[in-house]
């Protein structure tokens, strides 16, 4: 006779049943519940939100080409392209022209600093010259703080002012002109404001020509291009820049650059300033190479209206010897127009990966319309409780003593309930309560199917209801439901919303 298997304890059996239920629930597939609500106002809101999202993504994906030529709309990114910003760039500049001042004729070698022809250079338009400076002692400039004096006691020998011209000797001497006195210094004499002479070089400067040779390279796409057209050798000798007729002749008049920056040339030549020449290479590499063209813009970069730092100037000196022994120099304080050539841009080309990513983002964003409309229905609609009842199905557990927790777990996991020994005739399940209709309630209250135990919003799954109902019928008589306890069977569903 076979041995009888020992019966497992109740808790072990319940734990195994719980594990099987969890594993079964893990392999289940869940799908959203779709409800059609026939409400024109809500439908208009839903479709309007979807339309706005689609228009945004369509504009981003296909409208960028038009946006490049119509910058007044807004900056748009081509979301279907792989892009690269900041091209590798080289710049070569060359200035040509002559001008005159009160005392001499100036050529390129004298008024362009530095002469190497890089992306930043200055064109001198006015100078203050202090000629024949030699090393010696002379009065300090009155522009220096605490330089004025009345006697030698006001000057400290060996004192050095970092903003001054030299080392003080301790003597108080008459100034270069007038009755004032300043402390004597050991420096290059005479100091700058003692005998400087101003000369204006900007009379013919508006006609100076500037060649800006620029080439760019996008390494990701292996694309290179320059801003000079491949024509005859003498092409650049007879052309000047024109956006319509000669866009690939990068020779600009200095007066044209200042005018395009919105500045007055005479005022700028006297005080100096910084003008930016911006070259923009925005290229759609899905098109032909001829569609990738440089766009030039000009603007002033330095603070024009700042009284403490307006204008632009710098100093340099020219050294020579007299009789081969005495070192002499000419100090020049130069005011001019500094040109900064700035190159930037972005290239894009179709790529499958960003296309898929942005398409998925667009489709996901359309769900915002459903979220918004659900929020409106659940919050502001008159029959929001009916909609909530239809949209959400919740599992409700019976109210039993603590000893009946295996029944609750089994019902939640969709398993068969434990043996009916837990119930007795003297302790039936709690009567229904919640939001169901009673005979005395009006028709305005939301309708709900009465389950065999309390459920404030919805009903449990059919399998659980049938299993539990079968068990209850064996123990308790089931009263006949009234006509008001049923949901309306109108096939139009929520058409009355």
From TrEMBL:
What residue intervals traverse the membrane? 48-68
* Sugar attachment sites: 207
Which UniProt keyword terms apply here?
ATP-binding, Cell membrane, Disulfide bond, Glycoprotein, Ion channel, Ion transport, Ligand-gated ion channel, Membrane, Nucleotide-binding, Receptor, Transmembrane, Transmembrane helix, Transport
UniProt cross-references to Gene3D superfamilies, sorted A to Z? atp-gated p2x4 ion channel, atp-gated p2x4 ion channel domain
Start and end residues of each stretch annotated as Disordered:
417-497
The name on file for this protein is P2X purinoceptor
- Binding-site positions, ATP: 94-96, 209, 313-315, 333
Name the domain of life this protein comes from: Eukaryota
Question: Which PANTHER family does this entry report, sorted A to Z?
Answer: P2X PURINOCEPTOR, P2X PURINOCEPTOR 2
Where is there biased composition of kind Pro residues?
449-459
Species per Swiss-Prot/TrEMBL record: Nannospalax galili (Northern Israeli blind subterranean mole rat)
List locations, semicolon-separated: Cell membrane; Membrane
A molecular-function term among this protein's GO annotations: purinergic nucleotide receptor activity
Corresponding gene?
P2rx2
Family assignment from sequence similarity: Belongs to the P2X receptor family.
Concerning Pfam families, the annotation shows:
P2X_receptor (PF00864)
Its UniProt entry gives the catalysed reaction(s) as: Na(+)(in) = Na(+)(out); Ca(2+)(in) = Ca(2+)(out); K(+)(in) = K(+)(out)
Give the record's membrane topology: Multi-pass membrane protein
Q: What is the lineage of its organism?
A: Eukaryota, Metazoa, Chordata, Craniata, Vertebrata
Q: List the disulfide bonds.
A: 138-189, 149-172, 155-183, 239-249, 283-292
What InterPro entries does the record point to?
P2X2_purnocptor, P2X_extracellular_dom_sf, P2X_purnocptor, P2X_receptor, P2X_RECEPTOR_CS
One GO biological-process annotation of the entry reads: peristalsis
Function description: Receptor for ATP that acts as a ligand-gated ion channel. ATP-gated nonselective transmembrane cation channel permeable to potassium, sodium and calcium. Activation by extracellular ATP induces a variety of cellular responses, such as excitatory postsynaptic responses in sensory neurons, neuromuscular junctions (NMJ) formation, hearing, perception of taste and peristalsis. In the inner ear, regulates sound transduction and auditory neurotransmission, outer hair cell electromotility, inner ear gap junctions, and K(+) recycling. Mediates synaptic transmission between neurons and from neurons to smooth muscle.
GO cellular-component terms in the record?
A: apical plasma membrane; neuronal dense core vesicle; postsynapse; receptor complex
